[in-house]
TrEMBL record, chains A, B:
Subunit record text: Homodimer.
Family membership: Belongs to the transketolase family. DXPS subfamily.
Cofactor(s) it depends on: Mg(2+); thiamine diphosphate
This protein's pathway: Metabolic intermediate biosynthesis; 1-deoxy-D-xylulose 5-phosphate biosynthesis; 1-deoxy-D-xylulose 5-phosphate from D-glyceraldehyde 3-phosphate and pyruvate: step 1/1
Keywords assigned: Isoprene biosynthesis, Magnesium, Metal-binding, Thiamine biosynthesis, Thiamine pyrophosphate, Transferase
GO function term, MF aspect, one: 1-deoxy-D-xylulose-5-phosphate synthase activity
Protein name: 1-deoxy-D-xylulose-5-phosphate synthase
GO biological process assignments: isopentenyl diphosphate biosynthetic process, methylerythritol 4-phosphate pathway; terpenoid biosynthetic process; thiamine biosynthetic process
Keyword Cytoplasm annotated: no
Amino acid sequence: MYIENINSPKDIKALDTEQLNILASEIRTGLMNRLSKRGGHVGPNLGFVEATIALHYVFDSPKDKFVFDVSHQCYTHKMLTGRKEAFFDDGQFGGISGYTNPGESEHDFFNVGHTSTSVSLACGLAKARDLKGESGNVIAIIGDGSLSGGEALEGIDFASELESNFIILVNDNDMSIAENHGGLYKNLKALRDSEGKCSCNLFRAMGLDYIYVSEGNDIAELIEAFRKVKDTDHPIAVHINTLKGKGYEPAEANKEDWHWHMPFDPATGKDTFRDGGENYGDMTCDFLMKKMKADKSVVTMVAAVPVCIGFTEDKRKEAGKQFIDVGIAEEHAVAMASGIARNGGKPVFATHSSFFQRTYDQISQDLCINSNPATLLVNTASVYGMHDITHLGIYDIPMMSNIPNLVYLAPASCEEYFAMLDWSIEQDSYPVAIRMPCNGVIHTDMPVDTDYSGINKYRITRQGRDTAIIALGDFYQIGEKLADLITEKTGTAPTLINPRYITGIDEEMLEQLKDGHSVVITLEDGILNGGFGEKIARFYGASDMKVYNYGLKKEFLDRYIVPEVLKANHLTPQQIYNDIF
Amino acid sequence: MYIENINSPKDIKALDTEQLNILASEIRTGLMNRLSKRGGHVGPNLGFVEATIALHYVFDSPKDKFVFDVSHQCYTHKMLTGRKEAFFDDGQFGGISGYTNPGESEHDFFNVGHTSTSVSLACGLAKARDLKGESGNVIAIIGDGSLSGGEALEGIDFASELESNFIILVNDNDMSIAENHGGLYKNLKALRDSEGKCSCNLFRAMGLDYIYVSEGNDIAELIEAFRKVKDTDHPIAVHINTLKGKGYEPAEANKEDWHWHMPFDPATGKDTFRDGGENYGDMTCDFLMKKMKADKSVVTMVAAVPVCIGFTEDKRKEAGKQFIDVGIAEEHAVAMASGIARNGGKPVFATHSSFFQRTYDQISQDLCINSNPATLLVNTASVYGMHDITHLGIYDIPMMSNIPNLVYLAPASCEEYFAMLDWSIEQDSYPVAIRMPCNGVIHTDMPVDTDYSGINKYRITRQGRDTAIIALGDFYQIGEKLADLITEKTGTAPTLINPRYITGIDEEMLEQLKDGHSVVITLEDGILNGGFGEKIARFYGASDMKVYNYGLKKEFLDRYIVPEVLKANHLTPQQIYNDIF
């Protein structure tokens, strides 16, 4: 095995092409070992093995600097830079993240997990190099649909201003997570079809020099191309055509399913892990499908993550023109949703909490200033959501709930979620965002409102006394358990409240609580800073009410264990009880 | 005068070309009347007179829908749609905003003031039209440097997916606010130079059909072009070459100065309004220029608004490679700043508070997760800042201060501002944002710290008792006046605190205040929701301390009078005193 002797990039420089090809095969073995047992980004990594080998063969990392976009395709890079054990030794899987991570290696420059950032970050590395009069190549690597993101296009447009060494490696596998969307991908196809010779060329139109490599999984061809551009004195795009999922037949055949994949049996490609049961993705898809069939003006929108609300390929086809995947273009999505709502359509745009960060200004300016009645579905907005530092869903409450005019709702059960969604689609007065539940599909027998136009009216679900618990969204169930515990321990049942509205306070109810209550406890599934509970604390600031806010500390967590984080933040009912009583 | 009889767009349809040209001249008289007396966007409006006339001549607004980007070029549109008095009758200047405004007219579809939004918003109008099976043209108008913004590029990339009527009018005057930056503008030049025939074409590379109009200020030529594309069944870009400032010699000669201009004497072009005295723009420029001369790794960055920190054309030349205008591309700017800082440079990126909204995700992901020591200068972040609904600077505290790892500073004087800026540039541990003072250049005799690495340490500036006033940034001076008033009225001097750090609380000091104080008053120059004071309220939530938070209500203000807003929010010292004592 060659891989056994590769401990840093310099160790591959003595290998010849044949040996490098064997190395590629060994690397795929390592990839499959980790991916099949742990899950991860299958297609992006399998497709980028040869290119990564060729990059490290031609360039001299870390003096030459690679910046990976999204960085979910960096596994081979990790193997070649001293981290191969995390792929071959099952006991060491946990030693690395699924993204580049400067904490792991001097060959990684940024923690990256969102798309479309590599060109701009790399521009910065190059500019600092030039300011300091240093040398070395800077290479931004971008692909998997990231090109359509505004940040990437801004970066590519700016890059030509650098007037010094700068290489953009466009890893074109003709796919985003799902299929590509947007006109520029037609140009990429024209470039592939013409072997890069098509005179209308997006990269040249953005001011860059350009070369094309048709065999993006051929190490020899890649080495030749990279040698050509190494030490270039100007910005150049190197467009390579790779095969997503290369080397694993199921992944080559069904690229969307295998972009990211749960653990699987390599022999059959079948999942070895099954969730089963109800999930909000499929349920949301079914609900929206019914709405769309009943009303041609309802339209479902996503930005390259259709499956987050259950829209698999068959469902997308079924929805037809009433389903829009804008590609990686969240800014466009929210502004377009505002325009659809302005002209009488009923748009529902869904993406992950972490990706709504990419469209703050459009939520504020395009949507909320104009008060257009679009619906935003905020997915994985929870400590129970995604656990990588770059994909956390615990910041959307401070980010979104303080934007004027927005009605941000937090359902406390499955029934309430769909009632809110239905109301939001049918009303025409407010931009509405809904925090999709993320703590399992929890049903309720309690009646839920069908009309949420009584903005900021909280609901008392259990009338008690002395203590009031205001438990928001996914943490409503913690509130129930806490209420039970207080009742059990003190003999007095507290009042339990489902506030439902994140964006405002029910002043009338909070005023009434002063009668018969001396303690208010708030619970929210997100960071406390700038969040929901602080608004309650402000309301009672000058009163005698004692207010205790429970939620998460403001920090970037990474690959955390949910119960540990809950415990560290005193979020178990027993801890809260011990704190206060 | 033809303009006298134009009360709606249909009134121009009977005019012939010669009459339309006379109308254009009359419109310029109206523009000059308003602009010279009130100030406003001179160049964009003067350059777009003929195109607006031709649009309304060919298309049928409001069935055909125009969406103006930034919308600062919409004055002629306002004149032709029933609002001409606001240009010819000085007493009616206040009747309209400087941007499109659905509240004013059925011919305006959105409140717009940020750049790069028109294509996406218009895509939404077109999609809703198609869903409902309606007809009519949708025309997105974009220019003045807006093309480089990520949202615009996302929108243009998506537009080709519409497969129905959609027109993008590219108003190319070869300028942004200052000169254009970015590779795509080289392509626009190549297209102008080749009369649109250059085979490498950004718009075609993005999947659009395309035509070119060389004389963008020739009504007849424009009418012919618009007739060609009217009722098109597919997306098409109409690229017109206009002259920014057309018809007013000083504005044609110095396009940057006349993009937006203060009131002026039309005969000479000289300002009739002079601020005079010190201002933070010039002072910041001088300071950064000294830093850059002393250290080649310091680099000043802006996104198309260089003059917000005093970088006029001569200063930009003087700074050379150490000054970067990325164009309208705030996302790229922040990510690139992170990259520069990662590689040992010392970047300072400045823009307006309202425009930082365009780069939330980059602040969080590219910068703060990576903890790179870049400096962000947040301009006009204040109730004293810009007053249009689309440019408000009162939301950045909730938006930015709740992002982990960021150190957000609020100086309370000129000396403190520059001390913070100096510290931020030289330190290498934190991403730092500084709220530039906006309430005039206020000097202090008090010593200010030079080292701010003691994160979240507040400063007691006057030790008193009973009441503590925590007065943040620009509202520190209100805190001083309130302290004086309380002393005068009660005979007991309160404690006055300059907190300096927006992003955290000084728990030790707040704990100590419990000794000898029963009331804490917070003051902040921004909305209360998600802001600074609520964190103090949370800290004291379960204690006996009475906390009063003062700041602004969460709402979208528009063209407001500062003293009125302060009064409505109980922000005068006398009101606060009356509320509490």
